[in-house]
Specification:
46 strands; 16 helices; alpha/beta
Length: 868
C-alpha cells in the first residue's frame, strides 16, 4: 500500500508539472468567492479558507489527502467527480464536518479508508457511483457508512456493500445502484430499506426483477423503480423481467436510436400490468419523447393505456403513435401532447380514440379548430386542456356531450364583442378555465350551470351587475391579477373566492356571499377591515401584503381556522381580535415588537405559527411569547431560527428561542420588593448618619434662624447699636463681666446677654437681634464653653450671620488651655476660622495682660474683613 501511495504522489506531481509547462491552454487557476469556488478543469495551486461550495471536478488528483481540505471548515458542498481519484485516505474530511454533499462519482477508486467518511455527521448526499476499472487487476473496495447517519440520497456501486441491510440506519429516500454492466440480479435485501422512495438502477445489460415466491401473493412496494437503459449494451430480446413483485411506478429512462427501438420498448412494457409506467427516453434520430401511461388488465381484446403523454414532439411523432395504437389495438383514455406546433387542429385525426376521456394540447400554435364530427364519436371526453396556444374563442367545444372541464388558459380569447345568448350545449360543463386571456370585459355568454370559473389575469376592471345572479351553482370563483377596485358578490352560493393582486382598498357591507368558506384578499390596498364585513362562515382568510396597521376586536369571524396576515404594517392587535379557533396563523414581516399574552394566550388549538421578519424587542415583554407560547404545546413554528431579535443590542440578530431572562430581570414585584428593602436600608443608614453628624441640631438651629428672619424681614435694622456682642459660658460669666466693664470703660458699647436681653422676648430672638445690632461678636471660649446650651445657639447664629453679611466680625478670646472638644464638631466653619485666624489668648501673667487688653481694644476698633 505504501508503494501504491508513493506512485500516486509521483504521478500527481508529474501531471501538474506537465500541465503547468506544456499545456498552457489547460492551465487555469481556480477562482471564485467564499460561496462558490470553481476549480473544475483547473490546476489547483492555492485556495482561500472557509469556502462553502467547492468544485474539483475534471482534475487529476489521484489521492485525496487530509491536508487538501484542512482549512475548509465551512465547506457544505464538494465535487470530485471525474478527477481520476484512486485513493481516499482516512481523515481526508476531518475538518469538513459541515459537509452536506460529497460527489466522488466517475473516478477509479481502488481504496477508500475505513473511517474516511466518519467525520461527515451532517452529510445528506453521497455519490460514489460510475467507478471505472483500469489495469489488469480488478478492484472492488467496500465502503463503510456505519458512522454517518444523515444521508438521504446515496449513489453506490453494486460491490460497495455486501448486504443492503447495512444501510438501514440511514434515512435513505433515493438510492442509485450502479451494476457496472456486470450484475443482473438486484438483491432482495434492497427492499428492506423502509424509508426508500426512489430506487434507480443503472448500467445493466439485462435486469432480472424476479423475487422468490411469497406466501399471500407477490411483493408490492410503494416506491418508484427507475431503470436507465443503454440500447447498445442491452441483449437482444427481452431486456427486463418481472416476477412476483409490483412497484407503484416504473420509470424507464435512457435513449433509443430510432422509432423501431422506441416501439420495441412500448411493446415489451405493454405486457406489464398493475403498475404505473413512465417511459422517458430520447430518440436519437428525432426529438425527445416522453410517454406516460397506466397499464390495466386487458379488457376483451384490448390492451388499456389510460394515460399517454407525448412531450416535445412534432406532428409526425403523434401520428406515429396513432399508427402504433391501431397496430396493437390500444384503447387510450388520456392523451396529452406537448409542443403541438400546428395552426389548425383537425379533429378527424383523433376519431379512432372514441373512448378518450382527457385530451390535452399543451403549448403550440393552434389558432382554431376545424369543424368535424369529433363530438359524435368522443362521447366520453370529459376534460379538454388546450393551453399556451392562440385560440380566440371557446364556444367551439359546446357539442361534446360529456364535457365537464374546459381549460383554455393562456390563449388569446376576448369577450369584447356582445353576445345574444349562451351557446347551445355545455349541459355537463362544470369547470371553465379562461385565465391569462385578454377578456377585458364580461358578457352573459357563459353556461349558467358552472361550479368552477377561473377569470384570473384577464385584464378585468369591473364586475358587471348581472354577474352575481347569473351563476346560481358557482362554488369557486378566481379573479386574481385583475384591476378590480370594488367588489359585490352578495346572493351567490360561492364557497371559495380568490381576489389577490387587485386594487381593492375598501370593503363595504355587504360584499361577500353568506356561505363563503375561503377568501383570498392578498396583495391589495386594504388599510382597515370594518367590523361585521366578513361572512361568519369563513374558515380560511388570506389578507397578506396589504396595508393593515392595526387589527380591532370583532373584525374577524370566530370560525376562521387559517389566517394569513403577513407582509402588512401591523404593530398592534387588539385583545380578542384573533379567533380562538385558529389552527394556522402567519403574522410574519410586520412591525410587531412583542406579542402580548392577550393576543395569543387563548389560541389553544394552534398547530402552525409564523412570525419571522418582525423587529422583535427581546426584553422581558417577549418572555411569555418565547417560554410559554413557543416553548410549550404541540404547535410548529415555521423557521424558528429566523425569528430574530432587533433590540436590544446584546440580542441583535439572535434567534428569539435562544434568548434567556433571569427571574429577577422580568419579575416586577420582586424588583419592587428589593427596591423597597434597599430604600429602607438607605433611609436607616442616612438617618443614622444624620443623627451622628448632629443633623437634628442643625435642623433646629436653621429653623430658628428662618423663623426669626421671617419675622424681622419687615423691620430690619439699618445700623449697629452696639460695638460688640459678648458671649460666654455659664461658668465663665464672672470673668466675662470684668471684660465687659473694661471695654465699656474704654468707651465701647457692649451687648451682654444677661444684662441687655429684653425681658419677655424669645431667647433666640434676643440672641439673633443682639448679634445683628453689634458690629463685632466676641466669644469667650474655655473648656466649659461646650457645656452651655445657649452658647451653642450663639455660636451657630454667629456663624450664620458671618455667612449672611459676608464679613468676618468674630473675635475669639481664649481663656486657659483648650481641650480638643472646646469648639463643638458641628461648628465646622468656626473650627476652620480658629485654625486659620489669629485669636486672642488671655495670659495668666499680669505683665502680659496689658498687651492683651490693647490688642482686644484694637480688634474692636478694626474694620471687618470681607470674605469675598
Amino acid at each position: 500500500m505504501a508503494v501504491e501511495m508513493t506512485h500516486a504522489f509521483i504521478f500527481t506531481f508529474i501531471l501538474h508539472f506537465l500541465l503547468l509547462f506544456t499545456s498552457a491552454k489547460r492551465y487555469v487557476i481556480c477562482s471564485g468567492s467564499v460561496h462558490y469556488y470553481d476549480c473544475s478543469h483547473a490546476v489547483v495551486i492555492t485556495l482561500i479558507p472557509d469556502i462553502i461550495r467547492l468544485n474539483f471536478s475534471h482534475n487529476q488528483f489521484m489521492v485525496i489527502q487530509p491536508y487538501l481540505l484542512s482549512q475548509q471548515g465551512l465547506l457544505e458542498e464538494l465535487y470530485f467527480s471525474f478527477s481520476h481519484v484512486v485513493i481516499v485516505q482516512n481523515n481526508s474530511f476531518r475538518n469538513n464536518t459541515q459537509l452536506r454533499l460529497l460527489d466522488l462519482s466517475g473516478n477509479k477508486l481502488k481504496r477508500i479508508g475505513s473511517t474516511a467518511f466518519s467525520p461527515l455527521q451532517n452529510l445528506q448526499t453521497l455519490k460514489i457511483h460510475d467507478q471505472a476499472q483500469s489495469g489488469k487487476k480488478i478492484y472492488k473496495p467496500k465502503v463503510d457508512l456505519s458512522d454517518i447517519t444523515m444521508v438521504s440520497e446515496l449513489s453506490i456501486m453494486m460491490y460497495h456493500v455486501d448486504n443492503f441491510t447495512v444501510l438501514n440506519h440511514l434515512p435513505l429516500q433515493v438510492l442509485t445502484v450502479d451494476m457496472g454492466f456486470e450484475y443482473e440480479q438486484l438483491p432482495v435485501d434492497v427492499l428492506s430499506l423502509t424509508s426508500l422512495q426512489h430506487l434507480k438502477v443503472i448500467k445493466f445489460q439485462f435486469l432480472d426483477l424476479s423475487w422468490p415466491d411469497r406466501e399471500g401473493g407477490r411483493m408490492e412496494k410503494s416506491l418508484t423503480l427507475e431503470v436507465v437503459v443503454n440500447p447498445e449494451r442491452i441483449r437482444n430480446g427481452t431486456w427486463i423481467k418481472f416476477n412476483n413483485i409490483r412497484f407503484w411506478q416504473l420509470l424507464v429512462s435512457g435513449s433509443v436510436r430510432n422509432l423501431a427501438e422506441f416501439n420495441h420498448f412500448l411493446q415489451d412494457l405493454s405486457t406489464v400490468t398493475g403498475m404505473r409506467i413512465v417511459i422517458d427516453v430520447s430518440v436519437q434520430e428525432m426529438d425527445h419523447n416522453q410517454i406516460i401511461f397506466d397499464t390495466c388488465p386487458p379488457t376483451s381484446s384490448h390492451k388499456g393505456l389510460n394515460d399517454v403523454t407525448l412531450d416535445g414532439n412534432t406532428t409526425s411523432i403523434l401520428y406515429n403513435f396513432l399508427h402504433y395504437g391501431r397496430k396493437y389495438d390500444l384503447e387510450v383514455g388520456s392523451l396529452i401532447v406537448h409542443g403541438f406546433n400546428v395552426h389548425m387542429l383537425a379533429c378527424d385525426a383523433l376519431l379512432q380514440f372514441g373512448g378518450l376521456v382527457e385530451l390535452g394540447l399543451l403549448g403550440g400554435t393552434i389558432m382554431k379548430l376545424t369543424h368535424c364530427n369529433c363530438s359524435r364519436v368522443m362521447k366520453f371526453l370529459k376534460t379538454i386542456r388546450i393551453n399556451h396556444h392562440q385560440l380566440t374563442t371557446w364556444q367551439r367545444f359546446a357539442n361534446f356531450p360529456a364535457l365537464e372541464t374546459l381549460d383554455l388558459n393562456n390563449n388569446q380569447i376576448t369577450l369584447v364583442l356582445s353576445c345574444d345568448a349562451v351557446p347551445e350545449g355545455f349541459e355537463m360543463l362544470k369547470n371553465l378555465h379562461l385565465a391569462h386571456n385578454p377578456l377585458l370585459t364580461l358578457q352573459p355568454c357563459f353556461p349558467q350551470n358552472l361550479h368552477f370559473l377561473d377569470l384570473s389575469y384577464t385584464e378585468l376592471q369591473t364586475i358587471p351587475p348581472w354577474f352575481a345572479a347569473y351563476f346560481p351553482k358557482l362554488v369557486v370563483l378566481r379573479l386574481e391579477g385583475n384591476g378590480l377596485v370594488e367588489i359585490a358578490f352578495t346572493g351567490m352560493m360561492l364557497k371559495e373566492l380568490y381576489l389577490s393582486n387587485n386594487l381593492i382598498s375598501k370593503l363595504k357591507w355587504p360584499s361577500f356571499p353568506h356561505d363563503l368558506v375561503s377568501l383570498d384578499l392578498s396583495n391589495n390596498n386594504l388599510s382597515v377591515i370594518p367590523k361585521n364585513t366578513l361572512p361568519t362562515t369563513l374558515s380560511f382568510l388570506n389578507i397578506s401584503s396589504n396595508k393593515l396597521a392595526t387589527l380591532g376586536s370583532d373584525t374577524l369571524p370566530s370560525s376562521i381556522t387559517a389566517l394569513d396576515l403577513s407582509l402588512n404594517q401591523l404593530h398592534a392587535v387588539d385583545s380578542g381580535a384573533l379567533p380562538l379557533s385558529l389552527l394556522f396563523l402567519n403574522i410574519s414581516r410586520n412591525k410587531i415588537f412583542a406579542f402580548d399574552e392577550t393576543w395569543l394566550g387563548g389560541l389553544n388549538y394552534l398547530k402552525e405559527f409564523d412570525a419571522q421578519g418582525n423587529p422583535f424587542d427581546c426584553s422581558c415583554t417577549l418572555e411569555w411569547f418565547v417560554e410559554d407560547f413557543i416553548g410549550q404545546g404541540e404547535k410548529h413554528i415555521n423557521d424558528a431560527n429566523q425569528h430574530v431579535c432587533v433590540f436590544p443590542a446584546r440580542w441583535a440578530k439572535t434567534p428569539i428561542v435562544s434568548c434567556t431572562w433571569s427571574y429577577m430581570e422580568c419579575n416586577i414585584w420582586l424588583q419592587a420588593m428589593i427596591g423597597l428593602v434597599l430604600a429602607l436600608i438607605l433611609i436607616v443608614v442616612l438617618g443614622a448618619l444624620f443623627v451622628y453628624c448632629q443633623g437634628p441640631w442643625y435642623m433646629r438651629m436653621f429653623w430658628y434662624w428662618v423663623l426669626f428672619k421671617h419675622r424681622r424681614h419687615a423691620t430690619q435694622p439699618t445700623g449697629y447699636l452696639y460695638d460688640a456682642f459678648v458671649s460666654c459660658g455659664d461658668d465663665d460669666e464672672e470673668w466675662t463681666i470684668g471684660l465687659v466693664k473694661r471695654l465699656e470703660e474704654d468707651g465701647y458699647t457692649i451687648c451682654f446677654p444677661d444684662r441687655d436681653f429684653m425681658p419677655g422676648k424669645a431667647i433666640v430672638d434676643n440672641i439673633i437681634d443682639g448679634m445683628e445690632r453689634s458690629y463685632k461678636t466676641v466669644f469667650v471660649i474655655t473648656d466649659n464653653f461646650i457645656n452651655t446650651d445657649w452658647c451653642h445657639y450663639e455660636l451657630y447664629f454667629a456663624q450664620q450671620n458671618v455667612m449672611q453679611i459676608l464679613e468676618d466680625n468674630l473675635i475669639l478670646v481664649i481663656v486657659g488651655e483648650l481641650g480638643e472638644n472646646s469648639i463643638p464638631s458641628q461648628f465646622c466653619r468656626l473650627r476652620r476660622i480658629v485654625n486659620q485666624k489669629t485669636y486672642l489668648k488671655f495670659p495668666q501673667e499680669k505683665v502680659k495682660q496689658e498687651v492683651f487688653w490693647r490688642n482686644l481694644i484694637a480688634a474692636l476698633g478694626s474694620t471687618n474683613e470681607k470674605l469675598l
